[in-house]
Amino acid sequence: METAPKPGRDVPPKKDKLQTKKKKPRRYWEEETVPTAAGASPGPPPNKKNRELRPQGAKSTHILKKSRISKKPQVQKKPREWKNSESQRSLSGAQDPFPGPAPVPVEVVQKFCRIDKSRKLPQSKAKARSRLEVAEAEEEETSIKAARSELLLAEEPGFLEGEDGEDTAKICQADIVEAVDIASAAKHFDLNLRQFGPYRLNYSRTGRHLAFGGRRGHVAALDWVTKKLMCEINVMEAVRDIRFLHSEALLAVAQNRWLHIYDNQGIELHCIRRCDRVTRLEFLPFHFLLATASETGFLTYLDVSVGKIVAALNARAGRLDVMSQNPYNAVIHLGHSNGTVSLWSPAMKEPLAKILCHRGGVRAVAVDSTGTHMATSGLDHQLKVFDLRGTFQPLSTRTLPHGAGHLAFSQRGLLVAGMGDVVNIWAGQGKASPPSLEQPYLTHRLSGPVHGLQFCPFEDVLGVGHSGGITSMLVPGAAEPNFDGLESNPYRSRKQRQEWEVKALLEKVPAELICLDPRALAEVDVISLEQRKKEQIERLGYDPEAKAPFQPKPKQKGRSSTASLVKRKRKVMDEEHRDKVRQSLEQQQELQQQKEAKTKPTGAWPSALDRFVR
Amino acid sequence: MSANQVVESLLALSQQEELVDLPKDHSLSESEDEGDSDGERKHQKLLEAIHSLDGKNRQKLTERSEAGMKVSEFNVSSEGSGEKLVLADLLEPVKTSSFLATVKKQLNRVKSKKVVELPLNKEKIEQIHREAAFSKTSQILSKWDPVILKNRQAEQLAFPLGKEQPAIAPIEHVLSGWKARTPLEQEIFTLLHKNKQPVTDPLLTPVEKASLQAMNLEEAKMHRAELQRARALLSYYEAKAQREKKIKNKKYHKVVKKRKAKRALKDFEQLQKVNPTAALEELEKIENARIIERMSLKHQSSGKWAKSKAIMAKYDLEARQAMQEQLAKNKELTEKLQVAFESEEEEGGTKEEEEVFVPEVVNEVQKNVDGLNPWMLRSYTSDTKEVATQEDPEQLPEPAAHEVSGSEREERPVAGEEIPLRGFEERRSLRKRSELNQDAEPAGSQKTKYSSSQEVLSELRALTQKLKKNRQSRKQKASSEGTVPQVQREEPAPEEEESLLLERPERVQTSLEEVEKLGKEDCFQNKGLPRHVLEGQQSEKTPNNWPDAPKEKKKEQMIDLQNLLTTQSPSMRSLAVPTTIEELEDEEERDQRQMIKEAFAGDYVIRDFLKEKKEAAEASKPKDVDLILPGWGEWGGVGLKPSARKRCRFLIKAPEDPPRKDKNLPNVIINEKRNIHAAAHQVRVLPYPFTHHRQFERTIQTPIGFTWNTQRAFQKLTTPKVITKPGHIIKPIKAEDVGYRSSSRSDISVIQRNPKRVTTRHKKQLKKNSAD
């Protein structure tokens, strides 16, 4: 949920003429704006694509209208009747045409709900029940509030749509550039840097800055939107990988021997000799960890906030040169030559999971921003998309003619693969859906084989590093259109950045919390809970929470004889036993019913009436 | 002896003397100078003294207590008249006077009053006080309970306690309290009121409203007449029904029933012609009625009537017949109908039937292709008759052919068991089909209304049975014809099986050798693939309502690793094929390496992975504890093993672990180790009101940080529980604060200040009060 001030939207100049070939993209404001904008915009005639435009930093204040939150938002309430309706009727006679709180769409509310109400809870005491009710009501209220403020996410993602039957993959960059406004067109550029070999590149988290390093030692960082160069140096050593640290002011470069850290002036700040022969770098922004994979087979986590090595894990799988991070849970994915992908956390010496993905070695791994899909490509020329939610099974597979050497996911789930000197992009249906590998969304040929790929955050731009330099491609619909101004603001000033840095440091997540399911932290540690209870029972000699055994009350007039006491005890015992049996029977029945419901496809049994169907 | 006697006599003597002396002394002190009546009195005294020696009279006081007849001035004797002195006696004058009567009365009154009881002892009184005070105080305090409960559950408490701000009312409602004050306003409003114009809501005048509400007179009359007629008809019908019900003529009822059934039949036939869908519904109703009747078990032989008939049956032919009918009906009712569905399907056409049979076969074939362990899977898939029928043809005519492969041999025993079963199944299906035909055909001509209920139904049934008998012969013919195509249908099966047989060994081989021939494998797959596709199509055709389908899915849950990795994925239609000419040196170098790797790709990958997974599973399993001491109680040394008994006694088995998370995921190894570092951050103690960890988890599932919430929600979620105003004194809560009028404090103090004397009677009263 984004609470940040959202940038205002500036309406792009509307093109009045439509090319016959392409369908005119429709925007939601079109109905109102078309007639007025038609005369106003004398832009370039053909409008083939319509992409998200970078807003000009106009900020609208965060206004949340005070609203009465109804418990059931989707139900339209009856006009609210005031108790003394006669006297309370307004003087003018005017009545609220929309009484009660505004309805909120259920699906949107559902998106923000965290409590899984389908799971049944064991019987609870009245007190606990009231607490649970409060928690549930709170959750509902907050999710409704969040759903209401969805309205403030004014920006819409861009898209590219071919006219009926036309393949979007055939649209080349030149067409797109021609169609978009000047500001967006300026985002497509090529840097011809043939001298210093294939380039790796990295965008900063805000998407404003770009750093790239060539194999032959060329390292540069620039504000790529304004094309302002921050620094340019030659480290006189092979550069394997380059990565921004938490802000654009720090730059980690994996050089031939050691790992070096430079600032945005190009001054070398650190040389970290404990990380040697590093091949790949990943930065975990919320943990302030720089993960390095080395030729020696070690995965090292460096805490950049204190400069300590948190963990050095031996993957025992030879040279590591395929690495990516899962942005959802900060788990590092390593690809190995035996076709497996292993998942690592600094808290564990062994991999959290190992997945056999390919028959040959793994060449590239990428994980999407929601952490549900992982794309891998291997030496067997296959590209697979795996489901990471527990099953780790491939969702779709595709054999590529040349195999993909590099993979990357965009913020909205577009998948790019670099194959030789060609870049292919696949798109899914929605944000959380896996990319369908049926047809590429876009393709582009570069002047050299691809060496590095990354989608720019919050911009519909794909950066490709290749042997001929750097190419910045326009990919409509790649990035998240709305950014969180407090979290990663592309337009932030220096002061704001410093402020953010302090806050981010204060909220740093400890490295040991990285695990496969981050929500597991919100669960009670059952094992130690049970252990403690066992210890307590041992210490006390009895279970303090256990139900006291039934003790019959003494009765008078000879009814308290031993026999009758025993009888009474037995009665109670039997009753309890019967209850137990009853419960277990009920459970069994429920299970059976569920089974039956599963096995019996509803309404599909051959019915007795089928005999009349002719 | 004599000495003893002497002593005794002496003692007795001396005692006698004492006795004699004692009264002497006594008399001396009492009456020294009374000489005249000495002898007599002395004697009496002596007697008295002797009497007084025993028991009660001994301590008789010789004090004078009342007036006696004999009064001596020296001695006040105890002897009186022997009667009690009454107060009135004292007052009684010699002569009775009326003057004293009043006094007497007063005295009587005084006397009639009961005696004042003794006060309770101090402890008791105090206890009673305490109890009373407690009950009263708790009663007074109990009125605070709701307040306390409210405060405990309140999301936020603000101190010092003050009056709550009234909720801000919308401006319009505030304005509505406004009244016309200026003369002009008043004039306008009076004008409006006079003309009955709406003051606030300008939509409708009261006149308009009234006119709207009024109802048309004619309409109302018509409505009433309708209602009357309906009521009258209803009553007529009721009366008629009652009259008919009372008729005791059995024959009459029989005729009525028959008539009803006939009419229902006719109606149904007509309906079927006119409106088939409605007819279907009718039929369903009939079906329902049948089910209900069957459930009611009315036609069991356990009823009262049935029992009586059973007794009569011996002698009465009619009763016997009735009983037989009853039994037949029962049989008919309790017949399982579900089977009918099955055979119905068969009747639907040979095509359909084949489709029905296909899924099992498909399943089987797939399993074989999997090559994991075909014969093991086989044994449990072959429990259906379809498999049996399919296997049978190849098994019976040419049993020798199958001994070629070992796998087949393993299969056979299972199949052998199926043979007799199969025969049985076939017979049963035959029978069912004929039955079904009987069922189905009458259905075509069937009839009846649900409203005519069960009697009509049973009547119908009788009719249909007659029809059945007629058609029985025809049916049998039809069914025999039906079997012929079935046999024909079965013939293609062996061929398929054979092709399977040819292929299976190779499949197994590939899985064992782990894809050494990658190239070959592809063509195998190509071979396999079309079949897959075909089968897929077939199974798609079959209605997935077939109950077996989901079961199959379940069985197939274990995904085959081989399949997972070798599935032929569609290759990409490439728009831009990467150019390889302009590759740089290192690229070429890497490509070379890649090519080599590609050539050997997947050689041992799968096997290694499975091995690794096995090892991981082994490592995570808890180990058995071995406490065997070699040589203890038996010979020990090199080459000697401890006995089995000993081993079994001293080996502590580790408890069974829960199944691994990756049990059904062949391509995954999930680490089951606990992350201790993360666990240190987890909650490990359940807070108070919760009894189960899941309850507590639910309360902490929603994040409260502003990263995940809107600003307002964040503020609400993080509001402090208690708010205090700095610099203000927080006074204890008072009754006025929560809307109570009287102060409870004074009540308590009253009780405590004047504790009255409490007697037992009071105590009882108090108890009663407190109980109230």
From TrEMBL, chain A:
Main location: nucleus
UniProt GO BP: maturation of SSU-rRNA from tricistronic rRNA transcript (SSU-rRNA, 5.8S rRNA, LSU-rRNA)
Keyword Nucleus: yes
Gene Ontology CC, one term: 90S preribosome
One Pfam family matching this protein: BING4CT
Residues covered by the BING4 C-terminal domain: 440-518
Keyword entries, A-Z: Nucleus, Phosphoprotein, Repeat, WD repeat
Stretches for region Disordered: 1-103, 538-614
Segments of skewed composition (Basic and acidic residues): 7-19, 572-583
Subcellular localization, as worded in the UniProt entry: Nucleus, Nucleolus
Basic residues bias locations: 62-77
Repeat as UniProt keyword: yes
Assembly and binders: Part of the small subunit (SSU) processome, composed of more than 70 proteins and the RNA chaperone small nucleolar RNA (snoRNA) U3. Interacts with DDX21, NCL, NOP2 and EBNA1BP2.
Stated role: Scaffold component of the nucleolar structure. Required for localization of DDX21 and NCL to the granular compartment of the nucleolus. Part of the small subunit (SSU) processome, first precursor of the small eukaryotic ribosomal subunit. During the assembly of the SSU processome in the nucleolus, many ribosome biogenesis factors, an RNA chaperone and ribosomal proteins associate with the nascent pre-rRNA and work in concert to generate RNA folding, modifications, rearrangements and cleavage as well as targeted degradation of pre-ribosomal RNA by the RNA exosome.
Protein name per UniProt: WD repeat-containing protein 46
Organism whose genome encodes this protein: Callithrix jacchus (White-tufted-ear marmoset)
UniProtKB/TrEMBL annotation, chain B:
Protein name (record): U3 small nucleolar RNA-associated protein 14 homolog A isoform 1
Main location, first listed in the record: nucleus
GO annotation (BP), single: rRNA processing
Bias (Polar residues): 445-456, 536-545, 742-752
Ranges of Basic and acidic residues composition bias in the record: 38-65, 405-436, 514-524
Alphabetical keyword list: Nucleus, Phosphoprotein
Family: Belongs to the UTP14 family.
Disordered: region residues: 17-65, 383-553, 742-772
GO cellular component, one term: small-subunit processome
Compartments, record wording: Nucleus, Nucleolus
Highest taxon of source: Eukaryota
Biased composition (Basic residues): 466-477, 754-772
